[in-house]
Amino acid sequence: MYFVAAYDVDERRVGKMLKIFRRYLTWVQNSVFEGELTEAQFAELKAEAEALMDPATDSVIFWNLQAQKYCDRETLGQERGTTGRML
Amino acid sequence: MSAPNSAPPRSSFRVGGMLVGYYVLCPRKAWLSMRGLWMEQESTTVALGRQIDENSYEREQKEIMLTAEAPNGTPLIGKVDWARLDAGVLHETKKSPSAEEAHKWQLRFYLWLLALNEVTGPQGEPFAGELNYPKQRRTEDVRLTNAHTERLQEIVQSLQALSRQKSPPPRREERSFCQKCAFEELCYG
Amino acid sequence: MKRPYYLFSNGRLCRNQNTLCLERATDARSPGAEVAGDRLPLSEIPHRINPESPTGGDGAPQGQSDPAEEPVATGAGRQRDEDAASQEESGAVSNSLTSDDGQPSGELTGESIPFPIESAESIYCFGEIDVNSKLVSFLSKHHVPLFFFDYYGNYTASLYPKEHLLSGRLTVEQVRHHTNQERRLRLARSFVEAALANIRRVLRYYASRLEEGTEGIEEAIRKIESIKKRAQEAEGPATLMGLEGQARRRYYRTWPTLLGGAGENFSFERRSRQPPSNPLNALISFGNSLCYSVALRQLYHTALDPTVSYLHEPGDRRFSLALDLAEVFKPLLVDRAIFRLVKTRQIQPDDFEERLGGVYLTESGRKTFVEHWDERLRQTIEHRRLERKISYERLVRLDAYRLTRHLCAPEDDPYEGFEMWW
Prior knowledge:
Shape of chain B: globular
Strand order of the largest sheet of chain A: 2-3-1-4
Shape of chain A: globular
Low-confidence stretches of chain B: 1-5
Structural class of chain A: alpha+beta
Strand content of chain B: 15-25%
Strand content of chain A: 25-35%
Order of helices and strands of chain B: EHHHEEEHEEHHH
Mean pLDDT of chain A: 91
Number of helices of chain B: 7
Largest interface: B-C, 20 and 24 residues
Oligomer: heterotrimer
Radius of gyration of chain A: 13 Å
Largest sheet of chain B: 6 strands, mixed
Order of helices and strands of chain A: EHEEHE
Mean pLDDT of chain B: 85
Distance between the termini of chain B: 26 Å
C-alpha cells in the first residue's frame, strides 16, 4: 500500500514524530512523508504515532493511495526530499 | 512463542500451545515447525496479530509461563497471553477467528496445564478460558471438559510420533484452506 | 514492502535516530590507486585481449569444472578478494602517483539523506561508502544485508547479518545430501538441467523474433539439448559444471546474432571474466554478480544454510548455495536483462570504459543496468500452483523452498529447478 502522510502536532512533539515517521516513510517536505507500507507496518506506525500524539490537539493524516502507479505526482519548485531508491 | 524454534532431539521433546493449535489445523504444519522451518516471520497476518495483541488490552497479568508433564511423561510448556487471576480466567487474543478451532485447542491446552498444576480460581473452581477477537469485537468462552483432556493427551502422543517421523505428512491440498496459511509457499511454491 | 536501496553516491552510511542516513561526499572516488588519465573512452582503444585472462581462447578446452565460470560473476569470498587485491596492487605499481591511505576519497558535502529502515530489504554500495560498527549492528538487527562493489563494479563482499532462521535439522539434511555422492549429484543435476532448460527457453524466445540467422540458433539449441542429455548421465558435479560451461559457451556464441542490429557494436568472441575483455562480458559479469546477490538475499530469508552447496564446491566461495541457485535464474534475470538493454539501446558502447586491461560499465551504465534490474525483479508472472502473481525475485525464494522440501522428502517431493514456462 502506498501512503502519503502528514502531521500537525504540538511543537514539543514534532521532533519525536519526525523520528517515528522517518523509520517507516520517506520525508518529502516538512511534516509530509510518503512511501510503501505493508498492512503490518502501517499498523505499527499508527500505534507509535498514537502513543505519542495528544488526540485533543494533534492530528495525523494518512492517505492510502493503494499503489504508487495510480497516483500522479507533480512538484512545483524545489523537490526537498529524495524518494527514489537509487541514492 | 511456545513452538520450539529448532526441533529438539527426542530427549528434549516438548509440546507447546501453538504446536497443538498447528496440529489441529494441519499435521504437516506442525511437523515443519518442529523441524525449525518457520514461516511466520514474514506473514503480515502474524505481524498484525502481534500488533493487536500488544495494543488491544490493558494488561493485568502478562505472559505467564506454565510448565507441566503430560500423563505419558512428555514435558508441556505454555506461554499464556494474559490472565485475570482473581477471576480465574485465561485469555488468548487473536487477530481473526479464521482458525478458531486451533485457537480453542491452544487455550484448552493452557487450561489443561493449569489443571495439571492443580491451579484453580479464587473459589476453587477450574479456570475458564476466553478467546478475544478485538477487531471483530467478539469473545468466545472456552471450557475444558474431560473429553477435551483426553483429546489433548492423544494430540500430545501424536505429536511425539510425528516428531520421530522422517518426512513430513502430506499437504492438506485444499486451496482455500492453504491459501490462508503462512506456510503456503513452503508447501506449494 | 521492503526493497533494496542502491547507493551510487560516495559518502557515509550511518544509523541516525533509529533510521538510515546517507551523508553524501564529493565525487572524488578512486580505486585506491589510480589516476584520472587511466580512464580512456573505449573507442580510442584497439580491442585487446588480456594475456592474463584465466580462460582459454575460444573453443579451447577449459578446466573440466570450469571454476572460472563464476569468480567475477559471483565472487564472494577469498578468491575474489585476492583478485581485487592483486588488481589494486598492480594498479599501485603502475601508478605511483597516488596511494591509498585508507581515508575516504571524497569530502562530506553536508547533504544528508535519511531513508526508512523499515523499507530497506538490502543495500547495495556501488559508491565508496564508509560504514561503522553501530550501523552494522543496526542493519543486522533489522536483517538487512549489505553488498559492496568496487570501483570497477566488481562485486567484492557482502555483509551478511547473523542468520536468524537456520534450522539445525535442516542443515544436517543439507550436509547429508552433500556428502552422499548420489544425492549430491541428483541435486547438482537438477540445477544444471533447469539452467539449460532456461537457456533454451531464452534462445527460442529471441529466435522467434529473428528474421534471419535462425539456422545457427537452431543448431545451438540442438547442441544444448544434447549437452542436457549428457548432463543426465554425468557422474559428478565437476563434469556437470564442465557441461554447463560448454553449453553456456555455445549459447554466448549466438548472442551477436540474437542481438541483431543493436548488437553490431557488441562483438563477443568468448567469455572472459577476470577482467572482462569486452562490453558483453562486462554486462554478463555485472549481471551475474547481481543475480548471485539476489539468490543470497533470498536464501537469507529461509532456513537453508547458504554455505552448503551441490553443484558448486562449498568452500569455493563463502555462500556457494547462492551460486547453485543463481545458475537457474541467470537466463531469466541476467541474460534477458542484457538483451533488453542492448536491443533497446539503453546500453550503448559509450556506457563502457577500459580500465587496467579490462572493460567495465561506466557508472552511468551501471545505473541504467541496476534500474532495469530492479524493475525486472518486481515484474510478476501468474504462478500456476499458487494461483496468484509472483514476482521474478520471489521465484528465487520459491526455488529455495522447493529445495527445502526436497531435503525433507527427496522421494516424495524432489527438487526440480525453476523452468520458465512462458
